[in-house]
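Q: I have two molecules that I believe assemble together. Could you output structure tokens for the complex as a whole instead of separate predictions?
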Amino acid sequence: MATEPIAEDLAGICVDSHGSAIGMPQLCADWIPNQVFWLVIALVVTFFVLSRIALPRIASVLAERHGTITNDIAAAEELKRQAADAEKAYEKALADARAEAQAISQKTRDEIKAQLDEAVEAADAQIAAKTAESEKAIADIRASALENVELVAKDTAGAIVAALGGSADAATISAAVGNRMKG
Amino acid sequence: MATEATHGAEMAEHGTDAGGLVFHPMDQFIVKPLFGDGAVGMFTITNVTLWMLIAILVITGLMVLGTSRRAVIPSRSQSVAEMAYGFIYKMVEDVTGKDGLVYFPYIMTLFMFIVISNFLGLIPMSFTTTSHFAVTVVLALCVFLTVTIIGFVKNGASFLSLFWVSSAPLALRPVLAIIEIISYFVRPVSHSIRLAGNVMAGHAVIKVFAGFAGLALISPLSIVAITAIYGLEVMVAFVQAYVFTILTCVYLKDALHPHH
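A: Yes, here they are, computed for all two components at once.
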């Protein structure tokens, strides 16, 4: 490269014969039009690329994301509300079931109690009837027993009188026995 | 590139001078034709053209191809594009207000072009378009003229109240008006020189340290210094693009709302 002669017009006022800068290349007036020209083109191209394609696209993506997030949050709120409702309904159903169960068990208890009372009453009545019957039987037996005792006593008394050599008519003996037994 | 080859030749040629140290820190900024050795005319395809084209391709790749899937859950490149979009959009909205958002594509164009050019300039052997005053002055003048025109179109003559500080004592106002007017016209100068100056200085410093690497004794130190300055330059590349953009927003805000 160093052997190549550097063109005099390139060297000019900004570059020396070795290709090095003379002073600040930034201040070289020869290069300014070139830079300005290409800069303007670059800026215009960049502006159109950004404003026509890139920025609207990014804006729409950001808007879409924002919308999605908002929707998701709303959906989550809705689901949360539904869950709360479901829980409330469940609680209510549970309370209802409990109350119903209580009512049913109370009713059953009452029914059983009524049946029991009835049965007890019937049993009491039966027992009373049986008792009355038995008492009557006992009274009969007692009465018949007294009669038999009297008969036996009369017979015995007649036999005793006869054995003692006396004689007595039946009427007297029965009166005497009757008196004694009353006494 | 060709400059480097020339460097090598130079070193061979002048190697014995100055202990083998050759400094050409400004050679990296030379504009030269890509094809042939002609003069650099207005329409010559030069390294400026090449690196601006690369910048356009990178911007297109990032902002158009990177977002081509329009995914609700973004890929990496789409995230970067969205981040850049959100960063500048929020800056414009915060600084200029809602009515400044009309100019968002222009500001986005400036920011993307500057930040991508700055970063491309950090690639070794590349040409940094934003290190040239010709480029940054055009950028700054675009902003200055646009903002001034917008100011007058939107506010009419009341745009001039920008220079009339109504909150200051009456006696001071004419003095302040002169200062305000001067500072207004200095804006494009500071706006452009800040960007080109920062970028150029960093690159030149790296080249100077690289020149020291010719001495075996200093070369490790030189490499460490280059690495450190390079790290700084990465930051400067972004910060200067950011500063240029936010100043544009501030100027635009003055044009839209000139009343103090």
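A: One point stands out. Chain A has one domain: 8-182.
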